[in-house]
Design brief:
Elements (H helix, E strand, L loop, with lengths): L1 H18 L5 E3 L1 H16 L5 E7 L5 E3 L4 E6 L8 E11 L2 E21 L14 E7 L18 E2 L7 E2 L5 E2 L9 E7 L4 E8 L8 E6 L5 E8 L2 E4 L2
Function: Involved in the assembly process of the P-ring formation. It may associate with FlgF on the rod constituting a structure essential for the P-ring assembly or may act as a modulator protein for the P-ring assembly.
Subcellular location: Periplasm
Protein name: Flagella basal body P-ring formation protein FlgA
Length: 236
């Protein structure tokens, strides 16, 4: 009788072990890399840029508690989506954070970019013959690049630019049409009326910029939008 009892307990213990939930689950290296790849794809989607992940600095598999696994990927705020960066990968199981990983990546990116054909000095205004569009690797470039010649023609260089280099956003600026101290015509209009007054610009502004303008009749200063080299408009 005693032997039977011991054998029954042993059988029950084995049965319990056979049906117990696994203590961990394994998330393969490839699934982690797929999450990073998808993040980069979404970040650069619609930009006209062809990207290739040259390196994802993650090795091995993840051992996690059982449950539903989700990934959240975040990048440094100033990272455009190409070149080198350290991405943060947050791994959750059933909504609970289980891992917070730093994953180095290197992304190759090719896109049509505007390339300057001659060296530019500060203040040079770009003409149609000064630029061309070429397919270039953006990996070593930082900041926004121009992708069509129409974006840059008529703008001027804020700093010297070497020949045969892609033009970046911070290198160019619009040419001011209105300069501080200049007399301008202030236009106030809506569907029912149109009024004009003479004013003095209190700042420089290119087309579309908002500048402060002093109405010489009332001596009040108002914000106005630059229309052309001698006209600003007050919107209301």
């Amino acid at each position: 009788m005693r032997l039977v009892t011991l054998m029954t307990v042993l059988v029950l213990a084995v049965a319990t072990a056979a049906f117990a939930a696994p203590a961990t689950q394994t998330i393969s290296n490839s699934k982690v890399k797929d999450a990073v790849t998808e993040f980069v794809r979404q970040k650069t989607e619609g930009l006209g840029i062809d990207t290739t992940l040259r390196r994802i600095g993650f090795q091995g598999d993840l051992k996690l508690p059982p449950g539903e696994v989700s990934f959240e990927v975040a990048a440094p705020s100033r990272w455009e989506g190409w070149g080198k960066a350290n991405l943060a990968l947050i791994v959750r199981v059933n909504g609970r954070v289980e891992r917070n990983l730093t994953i180095p990546v290197e992304v190759e990116a090719f896109a049509d970019t505007v390339v300057v054909l001659r060296a530019l000095e500060r203040g040079d205004v770009i003409g149609p013959d000064d630029v061309t569009v070429q397919r270039r690797d953006l990996s070593s470039l930082s900041g926004r690049v121009y992708q069509s010649a129409e974006e840059v023609v008529g703008k001027r260089a804020r700093m010297p630019v070497r020949a045969n280099m892609p033009l970046r956003g911070e290198q160019l600026e619009k040419v001011p049409l209105v300069k501080s101290g200049q007399l301008v015509t202030i236009v106030i209009e809506n569907q029912a009326m149109r009024l004009t007054a003479t004013g003095k610009a209190r700042g420089n502004g290119a087309e579309g910029d908002i500048v402060k303008v002093q109405n010489l009749g009332s001596l009040k200063e108002v914000p106005a939008r630059v229309i052309d080299s001698g006209t600003v408009q007050v919107d209301f």
